Amino acid sequence: MNVRLKSIYIFVALLCLRAPMLFGQSNAKEYWFFWTHTQKINEKFGLLLDGQTRSQQSLKQLNTLLLRGAIAYNLKDKSSIALGYAYKGDFEKNKLTGYEHRIFQQYLSDFKIKKVEVQVRGRFEQRFLVDSETKFSLRARGFISFQVPILANTDFSSGLFAGIQNELFLNILNKQDVNNHIFDQNRPYLSLGYRFSKKIETAFDYGLMTSQDYSQKETISVFRLSLASEF
User: Which of 19, 39, 40, 151 would you call most buried, defined as having the most Cβ atoms within 10 angstroms of its Cβ?
Assistant: First the structure.
C-alpha cells in the first residue's frame, strides 16, 4: 500500500474523530463487553466471530445482545473479503423489545506504518429490523484503527499498547425506516491494552458514540472491555 493512500486513511480517521465534538455530549453512559475471534480454516479461508453485550447505567441489566459470524476469503497483502450474518436483540428490563437480522459483506485490510498496526474495514449491511413489523434498509460502515506499541518486545508479539479507532455508519436505502437521515452513527474510541501473544489480547476502551434519531443527535460515553483471539 503506497504512502499516499495511507495518508488518506489517516486524514479520514482524524476528520471522523472530530465529529462528536461538533455534535455535543450528554451524561448518558453505556458499558459494553466485546469479544472477537478469528479462526483459520486453511490458507485461504477463515471464520470471523464476535459477540457484544451492552448495558445502560446498570451493569446488571442487559440492553443489547449482538452476535455475528462470517466466512472470510483471504486475499494477498493481509486483506480479505467476507460474507456474514448478524443478530441484534434489544431488551428493556431483560425482556426482548425488538430485534434485527443482518446479512453483510465486508473488505478488511491490515498493514503497518513503521511500528504502528493499521486496520481498515468497509462493511455493507442488509438490515431486517423487526418490532411490530419488519422493515428493510441498507447501511454502509467504514472503520479504521491504529494500534501503537508502548512497552512491548521488538516484534510486538506481546506488550502494552495504545489505540485509536473510529467507525462511521451511513444509511444508504430506506433511511425513513431508521431515522430519516443519511448519518446514523459515529464511534471514536481511545484504548489501552495488553497483548499476551500474537493470538490473544485485551483492551479497555473509552468512546463517545454519536447516534441520530428522527429529531436529534445524541452522544453517550461508552466504557468497553474488549477481548480479541486468533487461532
Answer: 19
